[in-house]
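Continuing the series of single-chain predictions for the mutant panel. This is the parent chain; the variants come on the following pages.
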Amino acid sequence: MRLDHTGIAVRRIDEAIEFYTNVLGGKLTERYTSEKPGVETHIAVIELENQVIELLEPTSRTSPVERFIRQKGKGVHHLAYEVDDLLETIKDFESKGFTFLKDTYRTNPYGRRLIYMNPIHSQGQIIELCDYPEKKE
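Parent structure:
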């Protein structure tokens, strides 16, 4: 398991992209909007040397990112860890008593499968587990 990316909740994604690219020297590698219920977020992926930042701007009042910003403010939203096989890892973790927010399971437009663990297991920190099935083929 390795850190895949850090998700950061922001209010103005264009300003955040400007900061991470022009000030910190990162490269914008993906940008898309997910209007799926339970996501409703503009997403921008910034690569910096050996790390990846995922900027998240809510697109609706019902977005989980909007709820997060209202409750905790802007900043680190989640830490994402890449696993070899997401479905096997979910089974393994569940056999040890860990739970997941099942409605968060999805595949993003770039082929990354992901799910969020129930934050009760991590002292409130949102943890995403993900894999890239197409990379294995």
